[in-house]
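Lecture notes, unit on protein representations.

Consider one protein chain, 236 amino acids long.
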Amino acid sequence: MSYIIAKDLRVGYEGKMIADAMNFVVNKGDYLCIVGENGSGKSTLMKTLLHLQEPVSGELIVGDGLKANEIGYLPQQTLVQRDFPASVREIVLSGCQSRCGLRPFYNREEKTLAAENMERMGITALADRCYRELSGGQQQRVLLARALCATQKVLLLDEPVSGLDPKVTIEMYELIDKLNRDGITIIMISHDIAAAVRYASHILHVGATVFFGNTEEYAESDIGKFFLRQEGGEER
């Protein structure tokens, strides 16, 4: 069974619909990019996928044994969050909180998991550094390591390269792509449609026109060609 199935899903807030009639499926191992213009409902859809708010209407089915606490989330950072005065190790470990239950401390297994994910993200040497002293790219690696402590199944990423310089942006895209090739299902909001077509397996375009399909189908569609042309990206 698929991890997530949306049937005629409409999302919004306070009873106001933003995105209309979306039908899509996320299977294990997929890399889905959610794209569209500002205000089209991408972030609202992400909150709905995280069960932080209810759909306006339609169905959102979670299957294949996926539990709510098995979804890792990397939100867009605020200025206050970027200035958080905790060590890298403390922040990465906090991704294990859902595993602790009522236990007020991290056990050896959770500390080992945090260490493994810091190694995986190439930030072991930063473990004792204060988070707010790090560069934007280093902070995103810390938050990815934290999200990986919460799940090895599905990662939801909200514009993870926002504000990063071009070199670090490419490094982050390659890192996320490797996580996907290692078996983690990726659902990512992106404003970079050319990169979405390059890396993702599937595209969900939300807005006045809704599209869902694989990247090849999107690049050949009228809406895909239009937005790739607007970005100066390559059409197929």
